[in-house]
Design brief:
The protein has about 270 residues and is an alpha+beta fold. The chain folds into 2 domains: about 40 residues; about 230 residues, Extracellular Endonuclease, subunit A (Extracellular Endonuclease, Chain A), CATH 3.40.570.10. The chain contains 8 helices and 13 strands. Strands 2-3-4-7-10-11-12 form a 7-stranded antiparallel beta sheet. The protein has a two-stranded antiparallel ribbon with strand order 1-13. Strands 5-6 form a two-stranded antiparallel sheet. Strand 8 and strand 9 form a beta hairpin. The longest helix has about 35 residues. It is globular. The chain starts with a helix and ends with a helix.
Length: about 270
């Protein structure tokens, strides 16, 4: 009798342990499914696919490519680029190249201003492609100081909200493996000029960011006034369509129309922040 009770208790204990292990396994599998569904699903980007996505339709008269560093669609009529575009990858974030701080004209580009054209105007020579994103190569760092990559930027923007946005792009790159970044001016009628009218001072600047390696691919855009730019990031977030409307540029022209609509029309900042 005692033996039968012991065996019954032992059987109950074993069944309880097996039930507990089964429930733990089920919970673990559900956790993995949820986490995988929330993951960015990184996928590699081919060189051809990257080059296609980095193409911009613009009225600029000069496209200048600086090797693997970046490219600019330079507008000689304005003395600034309509767009500067580059790819930033996770492996490039930890470069050691030293900042040169030596601004130079590009003599091979028509209408490229001199660094002296910005002297005494009370504005920064604002980088379109940040020098801080090109630390992976000393040559790329030097190229970032070419005046084709520079536009008149008020210090309140350059060291304020714009610098915070650039840092946020680096955070997103660390998470999403690689980003394509497009930056340029939003020029309005009546914008002032410098250097005898040869260089336009934009009233606003835009930045378009595409995450090509995540699934689904996503994009976000921002427009900042060329001046004080306090407040949260959400205050300046816009759709890619809005940047296109205000600049006349066309981003991602080789994507199918349906995909352009999906990527360019929403302002889904939450997909980037969380």
């Amino acid at each position: 009798m005692i033996t039968e009770q012991l065996w019954q208790r032992w059987g109950d204990t074993v069944r309880f342990l097996l039930w507990g292990l089964t429930m733990a396994l089920v919970c673990f599998l559900l956790y993995k499914v949820v986490m995988n569904n929330n993951a960015p699903h990184l996928a590699p980007l081919s060189k051809g696919g990257r080059d296609s996505l980095m193409t911009v339709t613009t009225t600029s008269d000069t496209l200048v490519s600086y090797g693997n560093a970046f490219a600019v669609y330079f507008n000689s009529r304005r003395g600034i680029a309509d767009c500067a575009v580059y790819e930033l990858t996770r492996s490039e974030l930890d470069g050691t190249a030293e900042r040169s701080n030596e601004f130079m004209a590009d003599p091979g580009v028509k209408g490229c201003p001199s660094p002296l054209d910005y002297a005494g105007i009370g504005m920064d020579r604002g980088h379109l492609v940040p020098a801080g994103d090109l630390k992976w190569s000393q040559q790329a760092m030097r190229q970032s100081f070419l005046m084709t990559n520079v536009a008149p930027m008020r210090k309140a923007l350059n060291v304020g909200g714009w610098a915070k946005l650039e840092e946020k792009v680096r955070e997103w790159t660390q998470r999403d493996s690689a980003l394509l970044v497009f930056t340029g001016p939003v020029v309005s009628n009546g914008d002032s000029t410098l250097a005898g009218g040869r260089v336009t001072i934009p009233s606003n600047y835009y930045k378009v960011v595409l995450a090509p390696c995540v699934r689904p691919v996503r994009a976000i855009a921002f427009i900042y006034p060329n001046g004080r730019s306090g407040g949260r990031l959400r205050q300046y977030a816009v759709s890619v369509d809005e940047v296109e409307r205000r600049t006349g540029l066309d981003f991602f022209p080789y994507l199918p129309a349906e995909e352009q609509q999906r990527i360019e029309s929403p302002v889904n900042l939450d997909a980037w922040l969380y």
